[in-house]
């Protein structure tokens, strides 16, 4: 894993968490919706005593537990990334990395903040990636989410 891949993990994990939160929101809407009565005759061999919304609530609870694990991983990863960025000696390079990988800002916004043109920002970024030292035991979200 190179420096760019390592640093980009937080953005991808953030996207995944947001996607999961949207899914939980949809499940909550479905669980709270009033079902229409079944007008056709239904033969059921084994009665299910659970209300129809119970399965949705169980899915919501499983999703929320997954989101909790992802958020914990996200916080740990961000802390580790902050430490990695802080170890870069050049302040301009450090700031580009912070705005890009901690704040998820665009190149244009980073340029505005740092009062530099796009070419300079990208040069600082490329130089900074060369100075990034990935930890000996880096958090790798792909491996952590498989557990």
Account of the protein in words:
- This protein has 147 residues and is mainly alpha-helical.
- The radius of gyration is 23 Å and the shape is elongated.
- It has one domain.
- The protein contains six helices and no strands.
- The longest helix is centred in the middle third of the chain and has 34 residues.
- The model has no long low-confidence stretch (mean pLDDT 88).
State the major sheet: none
Which quaternary structure do these chains form?
Answer: single chain
Integer count of domains: 1
Count of DSSP E strands? 0
Structural class by secondary-structure content: mainly alpha
Please state the average pLDDT score: 88
Order of helices and strands: HHHHHH
Q: Which regions have little confidence, pLDDT < 50, spanning 5+ residues?
A: none
Q: Give the C-alpha Rg.
A: 23 Å
Q: How far apart are the first and last residues' alpha carbons, in Å?
A: 20 Å
The portion of residues assigned to helices is over 70%
How much of the sequence lies in strands comes to: under 5%
What is the number of helical segments per DSSP (H or I, 4+ residues)? 6
Morphology: elongated
Summary keywords:
mainly alpha; about 150 residues
How do the strands and helices of this protein lay out in sequence?
Blueprint lengths: L2 H30 L20 H34 L4 H12 L4 H8 L3 H14 L9 H6 L1
Helix pairs in contact: 1-2, 2-3, 3-5, 4-5
Describe the structure in brief.
With 147 residues, the protein is mostly helical.
